[in-house]
Amino acid sequence: MSPWEPGLSRNTRFHLRLGERRTTVTLDTLLSSYLAIRLGLEPETPQAHQAVRRWLQHRLDEHNDPGRVAVSQWLQREVLTVVVDTKLSAHYANWLLDGTPPPPVALDPS
User: Fold this and answer.
1) Over the chain, what is the mean pLDDT?
2) Under a CB-based contact definition with an 8 Å cutoff, are residues 52 and 32 in contact?
């Protein structure tokens, strides 16, 4: 069984550098798959894993906070801001700023 077989794991680990130290972060596999798709790659492939790792590393380097704690959680938030629909993000921002409730959206129960 290939380690890249879809659905094999619920979490995917990425080995990154945080300042001078090495760290391992964990993302839900679905979240890393969404990011891979956003990056234009087929999810859960070695190429997608490398691209997602590079993206995560770039985010860490860009914010340059070697003392950061809860790195996995912080990166999950960063990934969500990229993969979530812009309308949903705007509704959330409006709710945070002034308490404006988002318009109701019918969810397909199927």
Assistant:
1) 88
2) yes
